């Protein structure tokens, strides 16, 4: 029984981190219809910010988190202004963005590898190797903190989207871009801000990831697959769907890992993706595609 | 009588494509209901999109209260008091009815007034109050059209343009749509409506405009348009209607 509780708790903590990693991706897809393959590489960027902050200045990664978020959000603004704003007018926009973001991912990976080599890194604040014991249930502090911070950030995002005026504008643009424009929403501004928030969340997730997983520049490809499966499972562009998918699959993956070994744990995500695409292609929370 | 909106010889089209409107003109008088009729592909929807700024006007001009609207963005034209309800109704399917109404007031300068205005609309349209927490996408076509039309009233605009609001609705519901339009007109809103059923549209209007091949063919009091022989033949099936 204790084993089961422990697997669930670990699964939930990790699920929170994946949920945060995926929610920025989902937000950007929802508003701008960009399948941002570079999202995980930008998470990697956030991880390096936290890593060096700790290595060089002894800054706790949880303190570095807002810094990583801001640096990455600024990067997002730059990318949007330089590339996506113009690209949005092209007729082949969706196809183009896949290639473009793929290229950005390669460039970020190359840049990080050149600057910091391919050495495996992990940020190691005290709590990263510490744990709580509740009875015989063992909970690593690092994963617990990362999971809780992720949850708090996702809740903040949800409240912002649900209640703020700008949140209304973002949701409206996601659901019906032309209608949003007719209501007087400046959809280009919404695109810019959503992109900045989405990439900023990638930066925040990176800071958390930096002490939960060991990482190296090319590891983002592994995350691409996991995050894409979350976003598709959640129903493209549904943040709630992405978050639920992250929690459910992480717990599932934790069980698979426990019973069949860690190698199989990651495969849970791909397998689930496979099954969902066969059975319910619009994802858990997605709409059926229009028949018209 | 002074015109509220004057559209003069405008030319407009999509992207780099050919001109769809080729010298369309229209005069809009305050407080009246104006119906635009014409065959499929005549450019009726295009005309409304050009007026509200979704399509750039290539030549000719659109003047609202004597002021040119040339070069203004849709949100700026909305600010001036011209609302557009496109054929697809422009609702947010996964927002609740009340959230949709709030979006209608998105461009209000004074957001503190928004909740009160939304309440007012709910009082005026009980069905919207009843369904306030329901997702707009789950309502019937008639209810969605009611929401789309009522939502424009949040801004208390001067002009509301309706593109085929009756499309795809049962006859009984179509009458409701025209009733709502009357309610809007009674509050002083000037209406511009595109209607596929010329007879129905003109009977509910004060002023008629016949558009064909992107040009204004004929414009005048709705009754005169109904009675005009050319119109009778072209669009009303040639039968005399009294
Ligand atoms: N988004 C678009 N891009 C390119 N051409 C368009 C677009 N929308 C409409 N058109 C073209 O413009 C012309 C006029 O279309 P419009 O929708 O204005 O006609 P309409 O009078 O509203 O017709 P209907 O009664 O079918 O609604 C048509 O030839 C149509 O093919
Ligand atoms: Mg039309």
From TrEMBL, chain A:
Species name: Roseisalinus antarcticus
PANTHER family linked to this entry: AMINO ACID ABC TRANSPORTER PERMEASE PROTEIN (PTHR11795:SF445), BRANCHED-CHAIN AMINO ACID TRANSPORT SYSTEM PERMEASE PROTEIN LIVH (PTHR11795)
Subcellular location, record wording: Cell membrane
Membrane topology: Multi-pass membrane protein
InterPro entries for this protein: ABC_transp_permease (IPR001851), BCAA_transport_permease (IPR052157)
GO cellular component, one term: plasma membrane
Entry keyword Zinc: no
The keyword Cell membrane is assigned to this record: yes
Family: Belongs to the binding-protein-dependent transport system permease family. LivHM subfamily.
The name this protein goes by in its record: High-affinity branched-chain amino acid transport system permease protein LivH
Lineage: Bacteria, Pseudomonadati, Pseudomonadota, Alphaproteobacteria, Rhodobacterales
Gene, per the UniProt record: livH_5
Keywords: Amino-acid transport, Cell membrane, Membrane, Transmembrane, Transmembrane helix, Transport
Gene Ontology BP annotations: amino acid transport
Record-annotated membrane-spanning stretches: 6-30, 63-84, 96-116, 144-161, 192-216, 223-249, 255-279
UniProt-recorded Gene Ontology molecular function terms: transmembrane transporter activity
TrEMBL record, chain B:
Family recorded in the similarity comment: Belongs to the ABC transporter superfamily.
Organism: Roseisalinus antarcticus
A single GO molecular function term of this UniProt record: ATP binding
InterPro entries reported in the protein's UniProt record: AAA+_ATPase (IPR003593), ABC_transporter-like_ATP-bd (IPR003439), BCAA_Transport_ATP-bd_LivF (IPR052156), P-loop_NTPase (IPR027417)
Ranges for domain ABC transporter: 5-238
Protein name in the entry: High-affinity branched-chain amino acid transport ATP-binding protein LivF
CDD domains in the record: ABC_TM1139_LivF_branched
One record GO biological process: L-amino acid transport
Matching Gene3D superfamilies: P-loop containing nucleotide triphosphate hydrolases
Swiss-Prot/TrEMBL keywords: Amino-acid transport, ATP-binding, Nucleotide-binding, Transport
Lineage of producing organism: Bacteria, Pseudomonadati, Pseudomonadota, Alphaproteobacteria, Rhodobacterales
Pfam family, one: ABC_tran
